[in-house]
Specification:
The protein has four helices and no strands. With about 70 residues, the chain is an all-alpha fold.
Amino acid sequence: MTISTEIKIKENIKKYRIALNISQEKLSEMAEISTDYISLIERGKRTPSIKRLCKIAKALNIEPYLLLK
C-alpha cells in the first residue's frame, strides 16, 4: 500500500466514525477489533489487513472501497 492510501484509510475511518457519532471504543466493539488497534489505525501507526478493513467497513455500514477513496 502506498503512503497516500494509508493516509486515506485512517482519515476515512475517522471521518465515517465521527459522522456516525460513535467512539473508537464503540467502533472496536462493533468491528470486534481492539480499541487500541482502532486508535493505532487512526493515528497512522498501523495499516489494517483487508479482513480487518472489511470488518471496520461493515461496522460503519459502508462498502470497504469507501475507506480507500
